[in-house]
Design goal:
The chain is α+β, with helices and mostly antiparallel strands. The chain has ten helices and eight strands. The strands form two sheets. It has a five-stranded mixed sheet with strand order 5-4-8-6-7, with helices on both faces. A three-stranded antiparallel sheet has the order 1-2-3, with no helix packed on it.
Length: about 300
Amino acid sequence: MRINRSIATLGLWPSSACGELVLIPSRILCTTGTAFKPKLCPRIEASLLDLNSSTQLGLVCDFSEMLGWKMSVSFENEPEGGEVEQEERELERNGLHFELSRRRFMQTAGVLSAGIAVGVPNASAVESPGSKTRAITLKVNGQSKALSLDTRTSLLDALRESMELTGSKKGCDHGQCGACTVLIDGRRVNSCLTLAFAAEGSEIVTIEGLATNADPKDASELHPMQAAFLEHDGYQCGYCTPGQICSAVAAVEEHKRGTLSIVSLHTGKTEHPEMTDDEIKERMSGNICRCGAYPNIVAAVRAVAGASA
């Protein structure tokens, strides 16, 4: 396995004395966001050379004792002169510094990937420093279920992957489309942005829990909002529909409690505002329908809001 000098750009230290590679991060970012110049290890205190030097070492920080790993792989010395230097000189002469940096990055990434593949000690721990699995009990749709989850698992992934409740959809996974909307203690939330552990102890309701009958093929005892979406054809592909319905159920309840929207404030109707189309559009604006079924969604919500007024 040939290791050329490009690996030094990320702080890989080839030690001819021990025949090993010591991988040390070359840059440490300050937690306050301010830049600082890391103190160098004594052994390379006077060895800061130009990036094009054949003895390039890169910056190796004092954190080496804490963060340094060793990968027992054999390597060869840098080829003398030859095609590598010639190619780099050609790239620099033609102003292709970006291409040179890109190549160095790809070479370094390849070395790191190979090291992880063959088993760099503690590499997985560095890749996932916060990885921990703990027991959790989630109460979803009236039933409690004990799970063992990574502490970083989102509520959406817990519902879909661990509880097989696939009604809540993963659309953008960034909290922007609303396809993953569920109800937590009656409040609508984006489950893709909610940690499963943050929902422990709460009452979680998904689209599967709205109907009185748990059988998805039995439409005789649907929630009024589900029935309204069917009656008013408030969906096309149906992907966003579970999130739309959950959000609509919460929106109607919020209106009944007297919660105001920006439309309420703009119109001056701050005392039990009527659930107009503009009110519905504003209150449902966090849910995107890529098919464009918005008029029918508004009609469905208006029908339920009017019936419950």
